[in-house]
């Protein structure tokens, strides 16, 4: 178990220390659940009222919040408590799952595949023909990488993930459990005789940039032709659907259960709230935000926030909701 003094913690987060304590810190916890050897975080004033009753001996606090440390307790004021928390979570993180050997004997690796220096391949993995895996890549047990896929350096792929053929994956990516990359897109047309549906082949691929993280059970479908593209730094939550031929710019965020229909384009820094749905062939320009549960039917201008179904300017939609509430009283 790691144990850090207040001084050692402050060396990491570089804040202003108020108060003293004899306790050392062995972990992190929510303010209501923390014990005397744990640190907690207060990034919002509504949690400040919980501090007097908390058993934590250390609170990392946004510097705009006025708070007294109390007896045998310490406050460290920082500019951003969330970022300070992220640094400490890295310090206190438990070790990753253990690999007894770099390449497990039950892994099936085609003779034509290339595995970079320092990469690890877990039990039951499949690596197909002409796959190229960079340096320091980790494939946890039961990952499948199909033919002609390329994976950049220091990417981590968790168990159950399937990456279909000809995918191009960047460096320092993280794919959580059961991610699907490169499945066929959803495309059908009525048959000429009207007696069924004809499947539209999808012969493109998926291209994912560097430092992209994709949450558990999320899906990125291959292009019908050309590529489905996720730009550098995109962060995708669990249970997200990204359909064929979508293009995401840099550092886009999609929250859980949101979805993009085919050929949607997101600019840089677009934020999609949970359970939001975006109509096919729609463009959401850079810096725009889509509120949770919204349904976007038309293009969204750069920097705009939209809300509701169908999604419209957030301020206008809130006015409509207020008006409807008054009408129903």
Description:
Helices cover 12% and strands 29% of the residues. The relative contact order is 0.06. With 329 residues, the chain is an alpha/beta fold. It contains four helices and 37 strands. The strands form five sheets. The chain has an eleven-stranded mixed sheet, with helices on one face. A hairpin with a 4-residue loop joins strand 36 (305-307) and strand 37 (312-313).
List the helices and strands and how they pair.
Blueprint (H helix, E strand, L loop, with lengths): L5 H8 L2 E4 L7 E2 L9 E5 L2 H4 L9 E5 L11 E5 L2 H12 L15 E2 L4 E2 L4 E2 L4 E2 L4 E2 L4 E2 L4 E2 L4 E2 L4 E2 L4 E2 L4 E2 L4 E2 L4 E4 L4 E3 L6 E3 L5 E4 L4 E2 L4 E3 L5 E4 L4 E2 L4 E2 L4 E2 L4 E2 L4 E2 L4 E2 L4 E2 L4 E2 L4 E2 L4 E2 L4 E2 L8 E3 L4 E2 H14 L2
Parallel strand pairs: 2-3, 3-4, 4-5, 6-9, 7-10, 8-11, 9-12, 10-13, 11-14, 12-15, 13-16, 14-17, 15-18, 16-21, 17-22, 18-23, 21-24, 22-25, 23-26, 24-27, 25-28, 26-29, 27-30, 28-31, 29-32, 30-33, 31-34, 32-35, 34-36
Antiparallel strand pairs: 1-5, 19-20, 36-37
At a glance:
With 329 residues, the chain is an alpha/beta fold.
Q: Quick one: biggest sheet?
A: 11 strands, mixed
Helix count, DSSP H or I runs of 4 or more residues: 4
Mean pLDDT: 96
The number of strands is 37
Q: Give the strand order, joined by hyphens, for the main sheet.
A: 8-11-14-17-22-25-28-31-34-36-37
Protein structure class: alpha/beta
CA-based shape? flat
